[in-house]
Amino acid sequence: IGEEGGRELDLMGLEAVQLVRERVERFKIECDLTWGYCDLATRQRHLAGFEEDLAHLASLGYEHELKLVPQEDIHSVVGSDRYIGGLIDMGSGHLHPLNLALGEARAAASLGVSLFEHSRVTHIEYGKQVEVTTAHGRVTADYLVIGCNAYLNDLNPELGGRVLPAGSYILATEVLDRRLRQRLLPQNMAVCDQNVALDYYRLSADGRLLFGGACNYSGRDPKDIKAFMLPKMLRVFPELAGTAIEFQWGGMIGIGANRLPQIGRLKEYPNVFYAQAYSGHGLNATHMAGKLVAEAIRGESRGFDLFASVPHITFPGGPALRSPLLALGMLWHRMKDIF
């Protein structure tokens, strides 16, 4: 797509955050939206990457505050000795994603959208009109958008071969003492390290530490999420040993081979659109994908055409071997993180 195409994709990435901001404000969605985010470094090469990120965002005309944090000041962001620096971005932040989704559902319903839950699609009949079959009925439509991401299963093998489910998991502690919260995350930012098997965490509005990560490429959830995740949390915050874990959950994110969202339409059936493979950045990227697909259905969207022009490979190995092959490849990158 060329250098200019790449720049346009970067600008759409920034616009995606703004779309969330505007949606929350327009519909007055109560989702604990809090601004402030910091990337965290555990290796010198991560710091070099932050310098490049800073220069790149400046070249895009990024309007929000960016600040490099040296090792001697890192405790002003996170109360852990694990990190050697960071990059603060005040144009990013954190929120309650379920409350955002519920608020947007209410907003959509108020605008005349009909929502049908618990209606798993079992078959799609393609044509000038699309017929979608569920367990309890059929729906016909002029246009169809396939947005199943990591939960596409075998509904469309062509699209399914381009996205691989990977598990991501979160622990939520008991409500922490205010002084402890201020020591762990003094500025109430969301943070994330730069490793392949990354850690990401933040405080909830009611004072819990939400600690996530452990991207699992096996395609199977761990039997005990707490046992799987707790050592990772204690490696960052050993003082939380003995703190009660009151909630734990997980789900599948959709990974694409090049980590770029896959947005386009089926070649044989141009009335069928798709959006998937957000690779862990779905909250922002889905808003942009929805906007671009809507524009394309209405007749034209340069942004949609740009995304649709990016080629995406099918993961090798077929359904049985895709996950094991990816797990093996990611193990190599994890070893590079360690050594």
What is the mean pLDDT?
93
Number of helices: 9
Helix share of residues? 25-40%
Quaternary state reads single chain
Helices and strands, in order, run as: HEHEEHEEEEHEHEEEHEEEHHH
Poorly predicted tracts of residues: none
Spatial gap, N to C terminus: 35 Å
Please summarize the sheet with the most strands: 8 strands, mixed
Overall geometric form: globular
Instruction: Kindly provide the radius of gyration, computed on alpha-carbon positions and rounded to a whole number of angstroms.
Output: 21 Å
Order of strands across the main sheet: 2-3-1-9-10-11-8-12
> Structural class per helix/strand content?
alpha+beta
The strand count comes to 14
Please state roughly what percent of the residues sit in beta strands, choosing from under 5%, 5-15%, 15-25%, 25-35%, 35-45% or over 45%. Answer: 25-35%
Description:
The chain is 36% helix and 26% strand. With 339 residues, it is an alpha+beta fold. Strands 2-3-1-9-10-11-8-12 form an 8-stranded mixed beta sheet. A 3-stranded antiparallel beta sheet has the order 4-5-6, with no helix packed on it. Strand 4 and strand 5 (130-134) form a beta hairpin. The longest helix is centred in the N-terminal third of the chain and has 25 residues, at 2-26. The chain is globular, with a radius of gyration of 21 Å. It starts with a helix and ends with a helix. The model has no long low-confidence stretch (mean pLDDT 93).
